[in-house]
Design brief:
alpha+beta; 12 strands; two-stranded antiparallel sheet
């Protein structure tokens, strides 16, 4: 609705509804976010997460919800008086101080465990696919840009196999609560969100890396299922020496399993990936070789892509950045 002075503009028309259809699969994992190594890739910086800690600006609150007195947003140095008060609880170790920099630590929650752990260290993540809808679950509150980067990374990874009409959404505060998830750049400023990102500056990078591992596991399983259907029932029932039958040791003869991830599927849903492959013996060898090569690839090699740099950010390109496609 638009007022006479034009303060409110008409809302854009809603997109036409679409029916969600396709396979249902999921992956879930527990992460030790207090000590997780992040490998540099297109979507992540190289670094390591930290034991939980909250910064001084956390106590300052936000612009729309101010916190305690004598605390300020954007504080990267701390306050001598409150550091003295902090020492009665726990003075952070040198390792913690270096790991969380430039955050000045107000509460060293990761090194305090009386009467129990003050904040979680083991958290849960997951990826759920319901047809063309993909839900990434996170145990915290991602900022707007953090959420955009998670969605962008997953979308780029799955769009070729699952179609460009895939929609990726974020489900925050899932299974547990581990405070905020800010971007690396937001963390450097140390306003409320960065000070409340408890696992250090590489928190978002770690979540993206591990979510992509779960996504790769789902793609690999579908690749195996599609490859196993290349051999038609008539050809597989012929002589054992038939060239179209995969050997018993072939990786296509079984689905991959992982102790850190769980999967569920609904067989009555159509599998567009499998249906896109013709069931002919002429393509069997090449498809099998491709699937075998994918299985032999290590998780790190699946993630490694040309690195990005903040200076190369720009909308509409393949480089990750603070501005992504029209922002």
């Amino acid at each position: 609705m638009q007022t006479p002075k034009g303060y409110l503009t008409p809302s854009p028309p809603l997109a036409p509804a679409s029916i969600v259809h396709g396979p249902i699969t999921s992956r879930h994992a527990f992460l030790d976010m207090g000590n997780l190594t992040v490998v540099e890739s297109r979507w992540t910086r190289a670094g390591r997460t930290c034991l939980p800690a909250m910064g001084f600006s956390f106590a300052a609150g936000t612009t729309d919800g101010p916190g305690a007195f004598d605390f300020f947003q954007g504080d990267t140095k701390g306050n001598g008086f409150w550091k003295l008060i902090r020492s009665f609880l726990k003075t952070p170790s040198a390792v913690q101080v270096a790991c969380h920099a430039p955050k000045p630590i107000l509460l060293d929650t990761g090194e305090m465990n009386l009467p129990y752990n003050w904040q979680p260290r083991i958290v849960e993540i997951g990826v759920v696919r319901i047809g063309q809808l993909v839900v990434a679950t996170l145990p915290g509150e991602p900022t707007t840009m953090a959420g955009r980067r998670v969605k962008k990374a997953i979308y780029e990874r799955v769009k070729e196999a699952w179609g460009e009409d895939v929609t990726v959404v974020i489900s925050g505060l899932t299974n547990t609560y581990s405070s905020y998830i800010a971007t690396f750049e937001e963390y450097q400023i140390q306003r409320y969100e960065g000070a409340f990102t408890i696992f250090g500056p590489y928190t978002l990078d770690a979540y993206i890396q591990e979510l992509l591992k779960l996504t790769d596991s789902m793609l690999l399983e579908e690749s195996n299922e599609a490859g196993s259907r290349l051999v038609s029932p008539s050809s597989s029932s012929s002589s054992p020496s038939s060239s179209s039958s995969p050997p018993s040791s072939s990786p296509l003869s079984s689905s991959p399993s992982s102790s850190s991830a769980s999967s569920s599927s609904a067989s009555h849903f159509a599998n567009p990936v499998a249906e896109s492959y013709p069931s002919t013996t002429s393509n069997s060898s090449s498809r099998s070789d491709a699937a075998a090569a994918a299985i032999d690839a290590s998780p790190s090699s699946l993630l490694m892509q040309p690195p990005f740099h903040p200076s190369q950010e720009g909308g509409g390109s393949r480089k990750r950045g603070r501005r992504e496609e029209g922002e």
